[in-house]
Every structure is written in C-alpha cells, then in structure tokens.
Inverse folding.
C-alpha cells in the first residue's frame, strides 16, 4: 500500500505564491509519472502538471509560465510551485503517481488552494 501525503495548500491573495508538496511512503514502486490535478465543485478533475522520472514535464495551458513542477526521486516527493496565482486557480489539488503504463496508480487526499482577496 502506498500513502501520499500532501501539504502546502491554503489561502493566498491574487498574485501570490504557494508551494505544494506530495510525499509518497509505504510500498514504493517506480513511479514513472508524478503529477498534480485539480478539481472544483461540479467540474471534472483536470490536469495541472506532470513530471516523469527523467524530468520531462507537461503543463496545462492555463498554468504555463506560472507553475513549476519538480520532483526529488530520492525522497519520492513531487512539488508544485505556484506563482502569480489567480482566482481561477482556486480548487482542491490532488497528487497523482503512477507507473509508465498507468499501473500502480495512487491519489492523494487533496489539499485546498483558495485564491481570494
């Protein structure tokens, strides 16, 4: 069993920054892909950013240039640095890890990010 512990969410003013962290523990597999998704009430969960073991990144168009995803393979941890936050970024952010072909997929419990003045 794998546990994903997220941290770093909270309330921030527009234009501000937050850094999310997600640490994996337990029966650790080779999580080729680690990433972040977000969801708001009444909408489907959407991709924010992913990063592969070699470091290849993929971002949603809405966050390009503002968010940066990174990972520490030794610590089985993925980070999301969020800058220039907008009210539209308000959502519950979920950590996701999975193998190269989508196997051994796990989700975190979610952390709330609220961007409001």
């Amino acid at each position: 069993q794998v546990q994903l512990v997220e941290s770093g969410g909270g309330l921030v003013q527009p234009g501000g920054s937050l850094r999310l962290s997600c640490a994996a523990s337990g029966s650790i597999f080779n999580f080729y892909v680690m990433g972040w998704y977000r969801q708001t009430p009444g909408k489907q969960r959407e991709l924010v950013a992913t990063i592969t073991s070699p470091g290849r990144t993929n971002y949603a168009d809405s966050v390009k240039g503002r968010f940066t995803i990174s990972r520490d393979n030794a610590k089985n941890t993925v980070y999301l640095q969020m800058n220039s936050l907008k009210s539209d970024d308000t959502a519950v952010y979920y950590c996701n890890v999975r193998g190269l072909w989508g196997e051994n997929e796990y989700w975190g419990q979610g952390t709330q990010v609220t961007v409001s003045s």
Observations:
- Residues 47 and 102 are 15 Å apart (CA to CA).
